[in-house]
Specification:
- With 153 residues, the protein is of the alpha+beta class.
- β4 (118-129) and β5 form a beta hairpin.
- The relative contact order is 0.24.
- It has helices spanning 24-34, 38-41, 43-47, 58-72; strands at 14-22, 81-90, 98-111, 118-129, 134-146.
- The chain is 23% helix and 38% strand.
- The radius of gyration is 18 Å and the shape is elongated.
- It has a 5-stranded antiparallel β-sheet.
- The chain contains 4 helices and 5 strands, in the order βααααββββ.
């Protein structure tokens, strides 16, 4: 797969990823290490929580989303070099035994004003529940990409 440079990326370009099944055990394993809250670890405690059920950590789902996007290679062999993640919104809890996938769309492309060798891409990313296509998490990413054929200063 060839590398994509800024000149090959356009507003409105879309991509989709494969999917990943998130088991209750995987959710608990992640939570034990990174987000050890009762709502992510203990069914009884979770039942008495605001959500009323065990739910995966949003951070776990974001990490799995990153893996799906990296595997999908929306910029071809060009690495995903992130600068900013904005407007992360957890739309609803991710329950155990949920299969997720992601979709993305390029919202903006622009050349760097200070570096002739790079540009920036703003993408909107959604993580979806495969069973009903409901949005679980949405976020905007600003990525750095090579500028491509451009006059060098």
């Amino acid at each position: 797969m060839s590398a994509k440079q800024l000149e090959n990326l356009h507003v409105g370009d879309k991509f989709e990823t494969g999917s990943k099944f998130l088991s209750g055990d995987a959710m608990k394993d992640f939570a034990r290490t990174y987000d050890p809250q009762p709502i992510h670890l203990d069914e009884a405690a979770a039942n008495d929580s605001l959500l009323g059920t065990l739910a995966g950590s949003g951070w776990h789902v974001l990490c799995e989303s990153m893996r799906l996007i990296a595997d999908a290679k929306p910029f071809g062999s060009t690495p995903l070099i992130g600068m900013v993640m904005e407007r992360i919104r957890f739309h609803r809890p991710v329950l155990p035994e949920t299969e997720i996938r992601c979709r993305g769309e390029i919202l903006e492309t622009r050349l760097s004003e200070s570096r002739t060798d790079r540009g920036y891409v703003l993408m909107h990313i959604e993580t979806l529940d495969v069973s009903n296509d409901g949005v679980l998490i949405s976020q905007d990413w600003r990525m750095v990409v090579p500028a491509g054929a451009r006059e060098r200063r």
